[in-house]
Amino acid sequence: MAKDSDKIADYEKFLHEKLEPDLKHVWDLREKIYEETSDYMKLKNYIQLIKSNELKELKTMVDLGSNFYAQAKIPDTTYIYVNVGFGFHVQLTLDEAINYIDRKEKLLQRKSDQYTQDISKISAHIKLVYEALTEIMNLQKGEEPPLRDDLFL
Prior knowledge:
This protein is an alpha+beta fold.
């Protein structure tokens, strides 16, 4: 009996200290990817709006941080500065920016797909640990473990 309770404690420790934090971490990473993708999609829509309406200058509201906005006038919409990561901003034409955004969206989608696969794997491991815990607890009660005919499929 003590041996089984040690196994239960080990499984619970593994579940709560390893698998659940890993699942939350990967879930948070995927959420960041979704937010970044959303930002790029908004930017792309703004650029397409500027192009389709052939706007040469633009008045807009700019978020200065902490939801504090200021009115801004953009005298020339020929170029746009795009954050390419690591604190770097690159001056691009509107067409170049759309091309960059398209490539970036594809990259973010691949990352998101990988995180989704990782979430599925971790969730499967969690389910397996719960099944193992249930089986150990059933053995402690003196019940027979269920026959698993799916092992050889």
